[in-house]
Hints:
Elements: H1 10-31, H2 38-51, E1 55-59, H3 62-72, E2 80-84, H4 90-97, E3 101-105, H5 116-122, E4 127-131, H6 142-152, E5 155-159, E6 167-168, E7 171-172, E8 179-183, E9 197-201, H7 204-213, E10 218-220, E11 223-224, H8 235-245, H9 248-265, E12 270-271, E13 278-279, E14 285-288, H10 292-301, H11 331-339, E15 340-343, H12 351-363
Parallel strand pairs: 2-3, 2-4, 4-5, 5-8
Antiparallel strand pairs: 1-9, 6-7, 6-13, 8-9, 10-11, 12-14, 14-15
Helix pairs in contact: 1-8, 2-8, 3-4, 3-7, 9-12
Pyridoxal-5'-phosphate binds next to helix 3 and helix 4.
Amino acid sequence: MNKHIPFLDLHRQYASIKPGIDKAIQGVLKRQMFILGEELDKFEKDYADYLNIRSVVGVNSGTDGLILALRALGIGKGDEVITQTNSFIATAIAISEVGATPVLVDIDPNTYEMDVDMVKKKITKKTKAILPVHLYGAPAPIEDLVELAKAKGLFLIEDACQAHGATYKNKKLGTFGDVSVYSFYPGKNLGAYGDAGAIATQDSKIADKLIKLRNYGMTKKYYHDTIGYNSRLDEIQAAVLRTKLKKLDQWNKKRNAIAKQYITLLPHIKKQTILPDGTSNYHLFVIEIPTRDKLQAYLKTHGIDTLIHYPVPIHLQACYKDLGYKKGDMPHAEKSSERLLSLPMYPELRAVEVAYITECITRY
Ligand SMILES: *Cc1c(COP(=O)(O)O)cnc(C)c1O
């Protein structure tokens, strides 16, 4: 067994799919068509079928996906969008980028997902949308949020950037809201070989807007009725993603088996609670421990890499000091930021490696 267990090892995955990937990339090189071509068309259809949703629009990244989704819904200056403070910064940045204000809420201390009661308290006349994150690949309390958004006349945007293939009541995460956004950053469960992202929607009018926005706001060549973006999912990435999509369910199953092994071997350690009717794709496997920093250092000396998702909640980030939040505003997220630790998790992680990791944690 390796003395060093990296947090994520993409070499192993590539080794397992090399012929298919190489052929897919060669196909694009043969055609010499790199932007908005047939690979993207096919991937968008394949991913829409996979999700069981009407439209998927490929864009340059998950962050761009969130920005374009907000723009397509007409959200901008003077508007408020409610999201959670424990997420990757991109969720909030997208809201700021369109000129709106991110309004942050705390998380449930057991699921680490959005606290719906706090969302209710933060709704004002300016609120236009709720933007939950399916954190770590497990479902946000999506039924309650759908109901709340409907009752208050708000848009619901799902940040499904970590949630490819996970479900709630047998329905894929990212198919509950008005729009949802996926990232295909290389480390995600479905990862490109570069930056890529997509937006999914049941609403063909929104899809049409997104198709325009991602391509300079163009109606026909060199005619622009909207100030748009350059944000396309390129052909090489689409070819890679189409090849990998065929493996996604199999990979998510392996991640679930690894999670099961972790859970069995670490019976006394607190872990994320998954909603009873939901499934996780285990994008991350996160444990909670009071002496987190010491455990992380201990594992490091034993060759095991771990990460923290996330060490600073968004409301305490330096870039958001103007929003006026202070320490103590979001006690659950603040506490978890000091205690959460993400263990190595990828489909190719071996059972002996998981056993070694858990043995080290137990010994610690
Ligand atoms: C990865 C991620 C993003 C951003 O995706 P990029 O493709 O890196 O721009 C946004 N939100 C969440 C929750 C993510 O995990």
